[in-house]
UniProtKB/TrEMBL annotation:
Pfam families, per database record: ABC_tran
Designated name of the protein: ATP-binding cassette domain-containing protein
Superkingdom as given in the UniProt entry: Bacteria
InterPro entries: AAA+_ATPase, ABC_transporter-like_ATP-bd, ABC_transporter-like_CS, ABC_transporter_ATP-binding, P-loop_NTPase
Any one cellular-component term (Gene Ontology): plasma membrane
PANTHER family, A to Z: ABC TRANSPORTER ATP-BINDING PROTEIN, ABC TRANSPORTER ATP-BINDING PROTEIN NATA
């Protein structure tokens, strides 16, 4: 098993950042950790990699106990950190060569891998380019390629597409799917619900250091949220009120559950027909009807309050 965690606790003083997590990764799957800022995602990864000592619990990484044999276990793991840490003094190829030496690989072995890794990252023509000349998306792809230099059994990525434009995000997604199809196990954290829905075979939502739910994206959605959502916004009562005023008068009778956030009312329901018929007779109101998604579940379980 690539990663097994039992009863993981990590405290800083009196604060439990991770408060008793159990987690198993299956070989060849993509597992995603979701959670608001401060939920414990990055701390869980650091403990799993032996970079931070747990307060309590048992961790086995690629079958080896952590932190006791963390260095040996990490030799079988690739890591893409939250912030790119490429060496700006080296070219793309040199970054791969130097990183491979940390794993005890011979220069000839690494050199033979460099064309394949650059091609995987879509950087074949940037072999001799310095890091400072690369775009943010190129740097992220090179960091991903660098994490594969030791042919890892497990690839760990901490928010791999934060700050990237849509084209770069989709290219990273494509490469991660390619790795999973090839048998690599992937563990990633992300704030992007669409990323989790597209990539994850299974996922867990964390908050306050605890796992709130776990399963495939479809299982999690089906278990925690009504299947249909209608977002209502606009003007109500001849301009004397907006969607919040409308929701106060009508939402409870037309939806199984509703929430108001800002100027939008979110209505959750199984049969949207009565609500849609009602809204059709409200000329000032507009609405969006869609299937429920992971973001709906995430907000239901962790709340809509802003986290710093």
């Amino acid at each position: 098993m690539p990663l097994s965690i039992r009863g993981l606790v990590k405290r800083y003083g009196d604060t439990a950042v991770v408060a008793g997590i159990d987690l198993d990764l299956h070989a060849g799957e993509c597992f995603t950790l979701l959670g608001p800022n401060g939920a414990g995602k990055t701390t869980t990864l650091r403990c799993a990699l032996g970079l931070s000592a747990p307060t309590a619990g048992e961790i086995r990484l690629t079958g080896l106990p952590v932190p006791a044999r963390a260095r040996e276990a990490r030799a079988r793991v690739g890591v893409v950190p939250q912030q790119d840490n490429l060496d700006p003094d080296f070219t793309c190829a040199e970054n791969l060569l130097v990183y491979g030496r940390y794993f005890g690989l011979r220069d000839a072995e690494i050199a033979a891998r460099i064309p394949e890794l650059l091609a995987f990252a879509g950087l074949e023509n940037r072999r001799d380019a310095k890091i400072g000349t690369l775009s943010g998306g190129m740097k992220r792809r090179l960091t991903l390629a660098r994490a594969l230099v030791n042919r890892p059994r497990l690839l760990v990525l901490d928010e791999p597409t934060t700050g990237l434009d849509p084209q770069a995000r989709h290219l990273i997604w494509d490469r991660l799917k390619q790795l999973v199809r090839g048998g690599t196990t992937v563990l990633l954290t992300t704030h992007f619900m669409d990323e989790a829905e597209r990539l994850a075979d299974r996922l867990a939502i964390l908050d306050a250091g605890r796992i709130l739910t776990e399963g495939s994206p479809r299982e999690v959605i089906a278990a925690h949220i009504e299947p249909q959502v209608v977002e209502v916004y606009g003007e109500y009562d001849d301009g004397n009120g907006g969607a919040p005023a409308w929701a106060a008068h009508h939402a409870a009778a037309l939806a199984q559950r509703f929430e108001v956030s800002g100027e939008t009312a979110f209505c959750y329901l199984t049969d949207p027909a009565p609500l849609l018929a009602h809204l059709a007779a409200q000329p000032g109101l507009r609405y969006l009807h869609r299937p429920a998604n992971l973001e709906d579940v995430f907000l239901k379980l962790t709340g809509r309050e802003l986290r710093d």
